Every structure is written in structure tokens, then in C-alpha cells.
Amino acid sequence: MSSTRTTKMVKTKDGINWYVEQEGSGPDVVLVPDGLGECEMFSIPMSIIASQGFRVTTFDMPGMSRSENAPPETYDNITGHKLAGYVDTLLEELNIPVASVWGCSSGATTVLAMCAAYPERVRNAMPHELPIVNPPGLDDLFSKDSETISNAMAAISRELSGGVEKWDALGTVVHARLHRNYVRWAHGYPRTIPASAPIKSEDLHKRPVDWTIGGSTPAAAFFQNIVIGTKEDKILKKKAARHFTILLFYDNDQNYIQSNQLKMSKQPEKIDVHSHYLPATYREQCKANGHGSPDGFPFLPEWSIDEHLKMADNMNITKSYLSISSPGVHLVRGNDELARKLCRECNQVGADAKKQHPDRFGFWASLPLPDVQGSLDELTYAFDELKADGIVVETNSYGYYLGHKEFEPVWAELNRRHAIIFIHPTSGCTMTNSACPLPEYPNPIFEFFFDTTRAVINLFYSGTIARYPNITYIIPHAGGCLAPLIERFSLFGRAIPNLPVDQSVNPEFVKEKLTTNFYFDMAGTPWPDQLPALMNFIDKEHVLYGSDYPFTSAEYVHRLAGAMEVHMPKVFETEHEREMAYKGNAETMFRNQAAARAGSTSK
């Protein structure tokens, strides 16, 4: 697959006018040049990487070659931290929130400084030929060493489907490379470069790091000649020929010492409770009935089983639970016949995907609400014949929220079945202009969050939560705007006289139910602030992973996963807790539901 390379000048807020080259589309990869500061070194690998489904960005360093308006420091006398700051500013201007960052030689130093100072920008780092020893005449091999290109590609691919474990001996590297002045060769003669600000080894642990060395450089030669002398030489030689994921550095006496091999570990396995499917019939009916741009979203995304599985493989999603998104299956007010027919067809497509790939897909069956009888008929068929894993409902149906009294028979049957209900936001009722006060913006940007919150509060205020305790609810997007309103709605609903609020509502009851009957997914942008706020009210065991694919494109699923990797340790402190949020909590939820259902039917 060929792609077009574009060039442009980009001026950043620090006054630097950067020469930038970009090629391809997909998850972002950024290439940081070496001491010569010119991106020409990446000419060949740039196209190779782009052809594999990535958007590749590189640039001339500040004040070098085609970049203009250099910073006060010359490039030969600038620290890695300063360069990292300039590069971060450029990526912000280019709207690259997170990327795999590959740097060569002194560019590798910049990459490590980015890991320490700007971890939210770095999905994973690939420092190549870290210039711990940089003798004169060291040839750069990027443009002619296909093995080096393959190594970096392997590192990128491993991170997108895996990563590396942390290694505790980085402090020696940092001390040897960054904590003192050193001499390097640039433009054919030696330059003395000031030391960067100290970088703590734990700072580098903020992001996964793949250390690579070239196929015929002095470091690689050392590895081949010295390291391949151990009893594991056959294994090491095989790995060396493919990946070179070995870190080589020297101690304070400038003697080479060898690290342990960096252990590779896959990106955590995930169960995706929030992903969507768009059957051909559904797309046709949406377009035919005024929903070609649903909720102000500019288009209906394409979807296929193959593309969904490709995305899931890249993200290490072991199982995806499919659902129809907004506007749901009731597309025309009053036309229950169309809604019932479309609902049945969509549910059958979801069931077929599960039947074809039982280990990879589950599905939440749709209901044709506000048609109550049609919904009762469909949920019976969906559970008994199609073996649906649960039900998806929109936050409202033509302004009727989920706790509406006419929906009582539906909730009673779902309660009898100990059902899992995935609640998905839709547009607020648009019978009045005030329901859509900012129509120029797509509703998913913020209106969806408001309607999710309305739906949850309505379930409590209507008494639905109290009357039907066997139902498990999954709330998307970390609860929307729920967290800052929990105290307020649970207290004021009963404090103001004569409001139609169920007697069960009080802060203790609401908080107890949020930690037992409710789960919250991490789809969208719950980091760095939204989910931590919600965690004041829920347990870690009630957080689930969600991608929101394909309304969130595969590219942005990758980008959001990068932000998730950075911020999750702030809430989920141990690896076990993170693994549970990604997968284990969903498994527990399904086990508990199965046990409750079995206990109910045995009585």
C-alpha cells in the first residue's frame, strides 16, 4: 500500500518554524533525527512504516537544515530536556496527542527525556543507538540497513499488541549518559554538550521502552561477540538477529556491562463491553429515515466483522460485546412495525457474529422501545433463541426516560431474568428547541453525557432501581456527568417537598447501589480527570474496558489506549488491578450473573 508524503512548515508558539514531513494514516509514529538534525535519514524507513498502517511524522530539528528561527541555544549545545520540550510543543501543534516515538543517537536521548517529562505524549519509546559511546566515524545505518528498520517496526508492533516490562537498572544509563557533560562527534568534529537535567530512572518507567541497536554498529558487534558466549547462545543469537531488544551501556568506568534481556509482555488482554455493529439493513434504514448523520455525527461509520477483528487483534481485545448505537432501532415515531422488524434483523446479525466467532463476540440485543409489547416479545426471543448476553437500551425513547411507568413490564421481565443492561446515550428529546441548545455541535461531544446522567438519575428517582434489584447496569463513558451530581441528586431529591421522587432515594442507598448493581466503562476520554472523580463513589472492581469502535475509529482507539496506559496507574496502582479493569471485572460480572440466574431458575 503506497501513500503520499507531504511537507510543510509549522510554526509553534515558541517561535520555531519547523520543516515537517508526514506520510500514511493510522496510529502515530514520530521519528526524531540524530545529531545532524535532518529528517532525510528517515527517508526509506518512513515509507516502510507508513505502508504498515501508521501515520509517520518526522522533522528537521530546531535551527537545522530547513527548520527556521532556532531557539537561543544552538542545536549542538542544547540538552535533551530542552529538545524534548520543543518536540512536545511541535506535536501539540500537529494535534498528535500520543505516539510511538523512535529516536536515533542523540535523538534517542531526546526520546528518553520525553518519556520522563512528557509521558502522556509517548505511547512507547524506541531509543536506537543511544550514544553512550559515540566514536568518530560511526555511520548511521537507517537509510541502508533493512534489519534496523525491521527492528523498529517490530518494536512498534509489539507495543500496539504488547509492550515491555520495566527494568530497574536504568539509573546507570541515566547517570552515564545524561548527568554529566560528555563529548560527542557531530559534523565530523567533537562537540562538548552540557548535561541534561537529572532524570530519575522511575521517570523512564512511565512509558514502555524498547531498546534497539543496529545490525552492524559497534554496539551490535559487541553484542554478537561478547554476549553470544553464554549457555543460551542459540536463543540469544536467534533473538539478536531479529529484534536486538538488549540494552547495552557502560558503567562509571566506561566499561561495557550487559543488562538482562528485557522481558517482553503483551499489552493486557481486554474484554470490550462497549463496541458497536452496523448491519447493512440498519445503515440503509437510518439513511432512509433521516438518521444518515445520527445525533449530529457527520456520518455512519463503516463496519465489518473482519475489520472489527483486526482492530481487536491490534488492541489485544479477546472479546467484544456488540450493540446497536444511537439512535437505536426505533427510527420513526409511531412506526412500531418498522422498529420491530429492524430490531429483529439487527439482533439476528449480532447473534450470527457471536455464532461465527463465539470466543471473540458477544452481543447486547436491542429492544424497540417505546413499544412495550414489541420489546417484551423481542427480549424473550433474544434471550431464549439468540442467546443474547444482555440488552442495550437508549437513555430515552422520544423523551420517555427509562423509569417511565409504561416501561414497568419490561423492567419486571428483565429483573426476573437477572439481565445485564447496557445503557447507551442518545440525543435528548428534541420536541423543543431548548432540548438542543447548541445544535451546531454533534450531541456525542457533550449532550450524550448529560443524557446518560439524566437516565441514571431517572432510574433512581422513579424507584426502578429499588423495585428491580436483580438487574445489572453498565453505564458508558465513566458515567457521563454523574460523579459531581451524586451527592446533590441523592440528597435534594427528598429534601424538596412534593417532588415525584421514590422513597428509596437517599445518599446511602444510591452509593450502595452504585457499588453493587452498576458497572462503568472507560470508553471515550475518562482520563485524566473524569474516572478518578467517579472512583470516589464506586469500587475498582466495577470498572470495565470499552472502545466505542467504530464510532471511535481504530486510530483513536489506539490513541485513547495510550492515554489510558499513562493515567491508569494513578487509580489502579497494581498490575493486577489494571488487568481486572481491562478484563477480569467483566469476567466476574458475567460469572455473578450466571450464578444468580441459575439460582433463580432452581427455586
TrEMBL record:
Pfam families, A to Z: Abhydrolase_1, Amidohydro_2
InterPro entries from the UniProt entry: AB_hydrolase_1, AB_hydrolase_fold, ACMSD, Amidohydro-rel, Metal_Hydrolase
Protein name: 6-methylsalicylate decarboxylase
EC number: 4.1.1.52
Catalytic activity reported: 6-methylsalicylate + H(+) = 3-methylphenol + CO2
Top-level lineage group: Eukaryota
EC main group: lyase
Family as reported in the entry's similarity comment: Belongs to the metallo-dependent hydrolases superfamily. ACMSD family.
Record-level GO cellular component terms: cytosol
Keywords carried by this UniProt record: Decarboxylase, Lyase, Metal-binding, Zinc
Residue span, Amidohydrolase-related domain: 271-591
AB hydrolase-1 domain span: 49-126
Gene3D superfamilies for this protein: alpha/beta hydrolase, Metal-dependent hydrolases
Gene Ontology biological process terms in this record: secondary metabolic process
SUPFAM superfamilies for this protein: alpha/beta-Hydrolases (SSF53474), Metallo-dependent hydrolases (SSF51556)
GO molecular function terms noted in the UniProt entry: 6-methylsalicylate decarboxylase activity; hydrolase activity; metal ion binding
